[in-house]
Amino acid sequence: xxxxxxxxxxxxxxxxxxxxxxxxxxxxxxxxxxxxxxxxxxxxxxxxxxxxxxxxxxxxxxxxxxxxxxxxxxxxxxxxxxxxxxxxxxxxxxxxxxxxxxxxxxxxxxxxxxxxxxxxxxxxxxxxxxxxxxxxxxxxxxxxxxxxxxxxxxxxxxxxxxxxxxxxxxxxxxxxxxxxxxxxxxxxxxxxxxxxxxxxxxxxxxxxxxxxxxxxxxxxxxxxxxxxxxxxxxxxxxxxxxxxxxxxxxxxxxxxxxxxxxxxxxxxxxxxxxxxxxxxxxxxxxxxxxxxxxxxxxxxxxxxxxxxxxxxxxxxxxxxxxxxxxxxxxxxxxxxxxxxxxxxxxxxxxxxxxxxxxxxxxxxxxxxxxxxxxxxxxxxxxxxxxxxxxxxxxxxxxxxxxxxxxxxxxxxxxxxxxxxxxxxxxxxxxxxxxxxxxxxxxxxxxxxxxxxxxxxxxxxxxxxxxxxxxxxxxxxxxxxxxxxxxx
Length: 487
Hints:
two-stranded parallel sheet, Serine Threonine Protein Phosphatase 5, Tetratricopeptide repeat, 434 Repressor (Amino-terminal Domain), mainly alpha
């Protein structure tokens, strides 16, 4: 149910909403906010006013949320700029006065003028504190209702509405000093960004939540572990695997008794990060220690990493892993990545047959064929079907190109496909392009093992023996699958 403005401030808000009708017809307000005309009429005449209606009014008509909800400030955001400039000037004068007082020696404050300056400064500071208290008193119930609305909206996965509500809440947050509500708002913002695949923003907000929670109490309970897990996953999503591993290990050290399933989840995550960073020996120990006790959802999500661990260690073949346990999207994705990395045509064909489908509903756990871009591109290159090079490489257009990591992975796959098709000159050119794109990836960002292995093999096959360094270092840390390419 949509939250509404509480009765103590509803009439004042209604009065300010009616000012809006002086320049805009009710029909226009209804159309632009997305609320039925009858509802808008009721809000303006005496009915309860939902918080998301206020948010829509702010967004569509450029209304200053502080003015609409509390009566403070200029009515329109376009007016706020001038008001803000005046406020900035006043603050600057205040700071200059404070600096002047700070420079005065106490012994020189005997004159009436200096005493008056101090009294005026003290009065100004007291007025400022009273104003902050008033703003907090008026805005707190509105802020609370907005956060409750956001919570309910996020549970329904209504991302568009959640985006609007979060924007409104962030405006009101500036007027309200409530650390608990602010913390929850940041957590919702992080989750929303993650669902919208804006991993950088999600990681930034998760970092804020994690640090504030860490500073708030020495008790690091299971709930804190869950919040830390979200932060670690956000970092992993942006490629900051080293930072994620540091946070995960520190969290395990800080965890207090009793240690339950979220501790096991974090321990498993440490193993996953170690695997991504190329330490298979350490990864196997942590994943085997934590995964049996982790939450069921994590078991499903990390089943792919368990499969990857078995494949990379040489303990199981692709056929063995497919035959063991149920298929999940995570498992299918890791098998296909590994098969493309190993570059064996028969194994790749088997993996595509058992891990993808053109009828997802008929084969739960399998990936749609369109999601297996790199594996299907390589299979097409092996077959060299009619349509030639252009038709093969066109498949890569569907691959993600969001960031330098993605673009480097696509360039590496392009080089691999050209090499497999026997287009050596073009493959060499593609290799140079891939090398350049990898150099553009920030040092703190980790490129996944599979594209790096393919890139290293591309180098070897095209005459650069320096590509063996990657395989040597990983083989020494448990990646037996790379034995054919070591020095």
